[in-house]
Amino acid sequence: MPLSDDAPELAVFIGRFEPFHNGHLEVVRRGLAEANRLLIVIGSDGAARRADFLPFTTSERREMILASLPREDHHRVVFKGVPDLGDIIAWADRIRGLVAEALDQAGLGADAPVTLIGCSKDRSSYYLSVFPEWNSIAVPHLGELSATPIREAYFGEDPEGVSAWLAGPGREQLPPAVVTWLKAFRAEPAYGEMLAELAYARRYREAWSRAPYPPIFVTADAVVIQDGHVLLIRRKGQPGQGQWALPGGFVEQDEFVVDAALRELEEETGIAVAEADLRAAIVATRVFDAPFRDMRGRMITHATLFHLRPQTPELPTAVGADDADLASWVRLTDLRREALFSDHFLIIQAMARLTAETGHALQHVD
Asked: Which CATH number fits domain 10-191: 3.90.220.20, 3.40.50.11270, 3.40.50.620, 2.60.40.10?
Protein backbone atom coordinates (compact mmCIF):
# COMPACT_ATOMS: atom_id res chain seq x y z
CA MET A 1 0.00 0.00 0.00
CA PRO A 2 1.42 3.42 -0.92
CA LEU A 3 2.17 5.74 1.98
CA SER A 4 0.65 8.67 0.12
CA ASP A 5 0.06 9.80 -3.43
CA ASP A 6 3.21 11.93 -3.48
CA ALA A 7 5.53 9.56 -1.60
CA PRO A 8 8.64 8.55 -3.57
CA GLU A 9 8.42 5.06 -4.98
CA LEU A 10 11.95 4.14 -3.95
CA ALA A 11 14.36 5.21 -1.23
CA VAL A 12 17.99 4.14 -1.63
CA PHE A 13 20.36 3.51 1.29
CA ILE A 14 24.01 2.72 0.51
CA GLY A 15 26.40 1.40 3.14
CA ARG A 16 28.83 -1.29 4.20
CA PHE A 17 26.99 -2.18 7.44
CA GLU A 18 30.07 -3.75 9.06
CA PRO A 19 28.12 -4.50 11.22
CA PHE A 20 24.56 -3.16 11.04
CA HIS A 21 24.08 -0.86 14.06
CA ASN A 22 21.35 1.35 15.52
CA GLY A 23 22.39 4.33 13.40
CA HIS A 24 21.82 2.25 10.27
CA LEU A 25 18.51 1.03 11.68
CA GLU A 26 17.37 4.63 12.17
CA VAL A 27 18.06 5.37 8.49
CA VAL A 28 16.21 2.23 7.38
CA ARG A 29 13.17 3.19 9.46
CA ARG A 30 13.21 6.68 7.96
CA GLY A 31 13.48 5.23 4.46
CA LEU A 32 10.50 2.94 5.02
CA ALA A 33 8.53 5.88 6.43
CA GLU A 34 9.33 8.09 3.43
CA ALA A 35 8.99 5.69 0.48
CA ASN A 36 6.95 2.73 -0.66
CA ARG A 37 10.07 0.61 -1.16
CA LEU A 38 13.60 0.70 0.19
CA LEU A 39 16.64 -0.43 -1.81
CA ILE A 40 19.57 -1.26 0.45
CA VAL A 41 22.82 -1.33 -1.50
CA ILE A 42 25.51 -3.26 0.37
CA GLY A 43 28.98 -1.96 -0.40
CA SER A 44 32.21 -3.92 -0.87
CA ASP A 45 30.15 -6.77 -2.28
CA GLY A 46 32.14 -9.98 -2.69
CA ALA A 47 35.29 -8.69 -0.97
CA ALA A 48 37.52 -11.05 0.98
CA ARG A 49 37.12 -10.93 4.75
CA ARG A 50 39.31 -8.44 6.59
CA ALA A 51 38.69 -8.13 10.32
CA ASP A 52 39.59 -4.45 10.70
CA PHE A 53 37.41 -3.23 7.85
CA LEU A 54 35.34 -5.89 6.03
CA PRO A 55 34.73 -8.80 8.41
CA PHE A 56 31.32 -9.91 7.13
CA THR A 57 30.14 -11.25 3.79
CA THR A 58 27.31 -9.65 1.85
CA SER A 59 24.91 -12.46 2.76
CA GLU A 60 25.84 -12.16 6.45
CA ARG A 61 25.17 -8.42 6.44
CA ARG A 62 21.85 -9.04 4.71
CA GLU A 63 20.96 -11.55 7.45
CA MET A 64 21.72 -9.00 10.17
CA ILE A 65 19.61 -6.32 8.52
CA LEU A 66 16.57 -8.52 7.90
CA ALA A 67 16.74 -9.95 11.41
CA SER A 68 16.54 -6.38 12.76
CA LEU A 69 13.36 -5.47 10.83
CA PRO A 70 9.74 -6.45 11.47
CA ARG A 71 8.65 -9.29 9.18
CA GLU A 72 5.83 -7.18 7.78
CA ASP A 73 8.42 -4.81 6.29
CA HIS A 74 10.54 -7.47 4.60
CA HIS A 75 8.55 -7.38 1.35
CA ARG A 76 9.25 -3.64 1.03
CA VAL A 77 13.03 -4.05 1.23
CA VAL A 78 15.22 -4.99 -1.74
CA PHE A 79 18.92 -5.83 -1.42
CA LYS A 80 21.63 -5.42 -4.03
CA GLY A 81 25.40 -5.41 -3.76
CA VAL A 82 28.01 -3.11 -5.28
CA PRO A 83 31.68 -4.14 -5.35
CA ASP A 84 34.61 -1.84 -4.76
CA LEU A 85 35.62 -0.62 -8.22
CA GLY A 86 38.47 1.77 -7.43
CA ASP A 87 36.76 4.47 -9.51
CA ILE A 88 34.05 6.75 -8.10
CA ILE A 89 32.55 7.44 -11.54
CA ALA A 90 32.25 3.74 -12.37
CA TRP A 91 30.90 3.09 -8.88
CA ALA A 92 28.22 5.77 -9.23
CA ASP A 93 27.22 4.42 -12.64
CA ARG A 94 26.91 0.93 -11.13
CA ILE A 95 24.62 2.33 -8.40
CA ARG A 96 22.45 4.01 -11.03
CA GLY A 97 22.20 0.69 -12.82
CA LEU A 98 21.12 -1.08 -9.63
CA VAL A 99 18.44 1.54 -9.01
CA ALA A 100 17.14 1.19 -12.58
CA GLU A 101 17.11 -2.59 -12.11
CA ALA A 102 15.14 -2.30 -8.85
CA LEU A 103 12.60 0.04 -10.45
CA ASP A 104 12.17 -2.32 -13.40
CA GLN A 105 11.74 -5.36 -11.14
CA ALA A 106 9.04 -3.47 -9.24
CA GLY A 107 7.21 -2.72 -12.49
CA LEU A 108 8.02 0.98 -12.27
CA GLY A 109 9.24 3.32 -14.96
CA ALA A 110 12.72 4.79 -15.10
CA ASP A 111 11.23 8.20 -14.21
CA ALA A 112 9.71 6.99 -10.91
CA PRO A 113 10.63 9.26 -7.97
CA VAL A 114 13.81 8.18 -6.16
CA THR A 115 15.17 9.50 -2.87
CA LEU A 116 18.68 8.86 -1.60
CA ILE A 117 18.78 8.51 2.16
CA GLY A 118 21.74 8.28 4.50
CA CYS A 119 23.47 9.49 7.62
CA SER A 120 25.73 12.49 7.06
CA LYS A 121 28.47 12.01 9.67
CA ASP A 122 31.93 12.42 8.12
CA ARG A 123 33.82 12.39 4.81
CA SER A 124 32.77 8.77 4.25
CA SER A 125 29.27 10.14 3.58
CA TYR A 126 30.42 11.98 0.43
CA TYR A 127 28.28 9.65 -1.70
CA LEU A 128 25.16 11.61 -0.67
CA SER A 129 26.27 14.37 -3.07
CA VAL A 130 27.27 12.10 -5.98
CA PHE A 131 23.73 11.72 -7.35
CA PRO A 132 22.33 15.23 -7.99
CA GLU A 133 19.47 13.81 -10.08
CA TRP A 134 17.81 12.31 -6.97
CA ASN A 135 16.29 13.96 -3.95
CA SER A 136 18.26 13.26 -0.79
CA ILE A 137 17.53 13.06 2.91
CA ALA A 138 20.34 13.25 5.47
CA VAL A 139 19.26 11.55 8.69
CA PRO A 140 20.87 13.14 11.78
CA HIS A 141 23.81 11.17 13.14
CA LEU A 142 22.87 9.07 16.17
CA GLY A 143 25.29 10.31 18.82
CA GLU A 144 28.87 9.14 18.33
CA LEU A 145 27.83 5.80 16.89
CA SER A 146 30.28 4.36 14.36
CA ALA A 147 30.99 0.87 13.04
CA THR A 148 34.77 1.22 13.52
CA PRO A 149 34.84 1.16 17.36
CA ILE A 150 32.15 -1.53 17.28
CA ARG A 151 34.44 -3.75 15.19
CA GLU A 152 37.37 -2.97 17.47
CA ALA A 153 35.36 -4.04 20.53
CA TYR A 154 33.95 -7.16 18.89
CA PHE A 155 37.36 -8.33 17.69
CA GLY A 156 39.08 -7.47 20.97
CA GLU A 157 42.01 -9.48 22.31
CA ASP A 158 40.26 -10.48 25.57
CA PRO A 159 37.38 -12.98 25.03
CA GLU A 160 35.81 -12.08 28.38
CA GLY A 161 35.99 -8.41 27.48
CA VAL A 162 34.18 -9.10 24.21
CA SER A 163 31.46 -11.01 26.08
CA ALA A 164 31.09 -8.13 28.54
CA TRP A 165 30.88 -5.62 25.69
CA LEU A 166 28.15 -7.64 23.95
CA ALA A 167 26.21 -7.80 27.21
CA GLY A 168 26.67 -4.08 27.97
CA PRO A 169 27.66 -1.31 25.53
CA GLY A 170 26.96 -3.51 22.53
CA ARG A 171 23.31 -3.75 23.49
CA GLU A 172 23.08 0.04 23.43
CA GLN A 173 24.69 0.34 19.99
CA LEU A 174 23.26 -2.63 18.11
CA PRO A 175 19.77 -4.00 17.39
CA PRO A 176 19.03 -7.01 19.65
CA ALA A 177 18.96 -9.35 16.64
CA VAL A 178 22.48 -8.24 15.64
CA VAL A 179 23.79 -8.85 19.17
CA THR A 180 22.37 -12.38 18.98
CA TRP A 181 23.89 -12.88 15.52
CA LEU A 182 27.32 -11.66 16.62
CA LYS A 183 27.30 -13.92 19.68
CA ALA A 184 26.66 -16.94 17.46
CA PHE A 185 29.30 -15.87 14.93
CA ARG A 186 32.03 -16.09 17.58
CA ALA A 187 31.77 -19.88 17.30
CA GLU A 188 32.50 -19.81 13.55
CA PRO A 189 36.02 -20.64 12.27
CA ALA A 190 36.09 -17.33 10.38
CA TYR A 191 35.96 -15.39 13.67
CA GLY A 192 39.01 -17.17 15.05
CA GLU A 193 40.88 -16.71 11.78
CA MET A 194 40.21 -12.98 11.80
CA LEU A 195 41.30 -12.70 15.45
CA ALA A 196 44.63 -14.29 14.49
CA GLU A 197 45.01 -11.89 11.56
CA LEU A 198 44.28 -8.88 13.76
CA ALA A 199 46.74 -10.05 16.42
CA TYR A 200 49.43 -10.23 13.75
CA ALA A 201 48.59 -6.73 12.48
CA ARG A 202 48.71 -5.31 16.03
CA ARG A 203 52.16 -6.80 16.61
CA TYR A 204 53.32 -5.45 13.27
CA ARG A 205 52.15 -1.92 14.03
CA GLU A 206 53.61 -2.11 17.53
CA ALA A 207 57.03 -2.99 16.11
CA TRP A 208 56.98 0.28 14.16
CA SER A 209 55.32 2.42 16.85
CA ARG A 210 58.63 3.95 18.01
CA ALA A 211 59.63 5.21 14.57
CA PRO A 212 59.98 9.02 14.50
CA TYR A 213 57.32 9.23 11.77
CA PRO A 214 54.45 6.93 10.77
CA PRO A 215 56.07 4.50 8.33
CA ILE A 216 55.14 4.23 4.68
CA PHE A 217 55.94 0.85 3.18
CA VAL A 218 56.75 0.29 -0.49
CA THR A 219 55.98 -3.04 -2.11
CA ALA A 220 56.09 -4.52 -5.61
CA ASP A 221 53.62 -6.98 -7.14
CA ALA A 222 53.96 -8.99 -10.34
CA VAL A 223 50.91 -9.33 -12.59
CA VAL A 224 51.91 -12.14 -14.95
CA ILE A 225 49.43 -12.94 -17.71
CA GLN A 226 49.51 -15.48 -20.50
CA ASP A 227 46.71 -16.92 -22.65
CA GLY A 228 43.96 -15.37 -20.54
CA HIS A 229 45.44 -16.69 -17.27
CA VAL A 230 47.05 -14.82 -14.37
CA LEU A 231 49.68 -16.32 -12.08
CA LEU A 232 48.64 -16.30 -8.40
CA ILE A 233 50.14 -17.56 -5.16
CA ARG A 234 48.38 -18.73 -2.00
CA ARG A 235 49.63 -16.80 1.02
CA LYS A 236 51.39 -18.92 3.62
CA GLY A 237 51.31 -16.41 6.46
CA GLN A 238 49.44 -13.42 7.85
CA PRO A 239 47.85 -11.19 6.84
CA GLY A 240 45.52 -12.93 4.43
CA GLN A 241 46.68 -16.44 5.26
CA GLY A 242 45.19 -18.89 2.78
CA GLN A 243 44.00 -16.18 0.39
CA TRP A 244 45.13 -15.98 -3.22
CA ALA A 245 47.34 -13.06 -4.15
CA LEU A 246 49.75 -11.68 -6.69
CA PRO A 247 53.40 -12.64 -6.19
CA GLY A 248 55.06 -9.71 -4.47
CA GLY A 249 56.70 -8.25 -1.41
CA PHE A 250 58.71 -5.39 0.02
CA VAL A 251 61.14 -3.39 -2.08
CA GLU A 252 64.65 -3.67 -0.66
CA GLN A 253 66.89 -0.67 -0.01
CA ASP A 254 69.16 -1.26 -2.99
CA GLU A 255 66.77 -2.24 -5.79
CA PHE A 256 64.45 -0.69 -8.33
CA VAL A 257 60.73 -1.46 -8.15
CA VAL A 258 60.75 -3.59 -11.31
CA ASP A 259 63.72 -5.56 -9.98
CA ALA A 260 61.81 -6.17 -6.75
CA ALA A 261 58.81 -7.47 -8.69
CA LEU A 262 61.06 -9.83 -10.65
CA ARG A 263 62.82 -11.05 -7.51
CA GLU A 264 59.57 -11.72 -5.64
CA LEU A 265 58.08 -13.43 -8.70
CA GLU A 266 61.02 -15.81 -8.95
CA GLU A 267 61.23 -16.40 -5.17
CA GLU A 268 57.54 -17.15 -4.70
CA THR A 269 56.76 -19.07 -7.90
CA GLY A 270 60.04 -20.27 -9.40
CA ILE A 271 58.41 -19.51 -12.77
CA ALA A 272 60.12 -21.42 -15.57
CA VAL A 273 60.79 -18.36 -17.73
CA ALA A 274 64.21 -16.80 -18.25
CA GLU A 275 64.71 -13.39 -16.63
CA ALA A 276 65.50 -11.84 -20.01
CA ASP A 277 62.17 -13.08 -21.36
CA LEU A 278 60.34 -11.75 -18.30
CA ARG A 279 61.93 -8.33 -18.75
CA ALA A 280 60.99 -8.34 -22.43
CA ALA A 281 57.37 -9.08 -21.43
CA ILE A 282 56.99 -5.97 -19.24
CA VAL A 283 54.10 -3.81 -20.45
CA ALA A 284 53.75 -1.21 -17.71
CA THR A 285 54.04 -0.42 -14.01
CA ARG A 286 51.29 1.28 -12.05
CA VAL A 287 50.97 2.55 -8.47
CA PHE A 288 48.13 1.46 -6.16
CA ASP A 289 48.06 3.66 -3.08
CA ALA A 290 44.64 3.57 -1.41
CA PRO A 291 45.44 4.73 2.16
CA PHE A 292 43.80 1.81 3.97
CA ARG A 293 44.51 -1.01 1.53
CA ASP A 294 46.51 -2.98 4.13
CA MET A 295 45.81 -3.49 7.82
CA ARG A 296 49.53 -3.40 8.70
CA GLY A 297 49.81 0.29 7.83
CA ARG A 298 50.32 2.64 4.90
CA MET A 299 51.30 0.28 2.10
CA ILE A 300 51.95 1.63 -1.41
CA THR A 301 52.45 -1.01 -4.06
CA HIS A 302 53.83 -0.84 -7.58
CA ALA A 303 52.28 -3.45 -9.86
CA THR A 304 54.32 -4.52 -12.88
CA LEU A 305 52.48 -6.18 -15.74
CA PHE A 306 54.23 -9.03 -17.57
CA HIS A 307 52.36 -10.16 -20.69
CA LEU A 308 54.01 -13.42 -21.74
CA ARG A 309 53.87 -14.77 -25.27
CA PRO A 310 53.29 -18.53 -25.45
CA GLN A 311 56.47 -20.49 -26.16
CA THR A 312 54.71 -23.87 -25.86
CA PRO A 313 51.05 -24.97 -25.64
CA GLU A 314 51.44 -25.30 -21.86
CA LEU A 315 51.63 -22.47 -19.35
CA PRO A 316 55.05 -22.05 -17.69
CA THR A 317 55.64 -24.22 -14.63
CA ALA A 318 55.26 -22.43 -11.29
CA VAL A 319 55.59 -23.84 -7.76
CA GLY A 320 54.81 -22.01 -4.51
CA ALA A 321 57.86 -21.16 -2.37
CA ASP A 322 59.10 -18.62 0.19
CA ASP A 323 55.97 -16.77 1.43
CA ALA A 324 53.67 -18.87 -0.80
CA ASP A 325 52.54 -22.43 -0.16
CA LEU A 326 51.11 -22.81 -3.66
CA ALA A 327 51.34 -21.14 -7.07
CA SER A 328 48.73 -21.58 -9.78
CA TRP A 329 47.60 -20.16 -13.11
CA VAL A 330 43.97 -19.02 -12.89
CA ARG A 331 41.72 -18.01 -15.78
CA LEU A 332 40.88 -14.32 -15.66
CA THR A 333 37.23 -15.21 -16.12
CA ASP A 334 37.37 -17.51 -13.06
CA LEU A 335 38.70 -14.91 -10.62
CA ARG A 336 36.57 -14.40 -7.50
CA ARG A 337 36.86 -11.21 -5.46
CA GLU A 338 36.22 -12.99 -2.18
CA ALA A 339 39.19 -15.33 -2.70
CA LEU A 340 41.76 -12.60 -3.39
CA PHE A 341 43.85 -10.77 -0.81
CA SER A 342 43.46 -7.04 -0.20
CA ASP A 343 42.86 -5.10 -3.44
CA HIS A 344 44.55 -7.63 -5.73
CA PHE A 345 41.36 -8.22 -7.72
CA LEU A 346 41.23 -4.49 -8.50
CA ILE A 347 44.92 -4.51 -9.43
CA ILE A 348 44.43 -7.38 -11.88
CA GLN A 349 41.32 -5.71 -13.28
CA ALA A 350 43.11 -2.39 -13.78
CA MET A 351 46.16 -3.96 -15.40
CA ALA A 352 43.95 -6.02 -17.71
CA ARG A 353 42.34 -2.80 -18.91
CA LEU A 354 45.75 -1.21 -19.26
CA THR A 355 46.88 -3.95 -21.63
CA ALA A 356 43.90 -3.21 -23.87
CA GLU A 357 44.79 0.50 -23.89
CA THR A 358 48.38 -0.27 -24.93
CA GLY A 359 47.33 -2.56 -27.74
CA HIS A 360 47.70 -5.92 -26.00
CA ALA A 361 44.50 -7.91 -26.43
CA LEU A 362 43.26 -9.31 -23.13
CA GLN A 363 39.98 -10.59 -21.74
CA HIS A 364 37.89 -8.20 -19.70
CA VAL A 365 37.85 -8.85 -15.96
CA ASP A 366 34.68 -7.84 -14.09
From this structure: 3.40.50.620
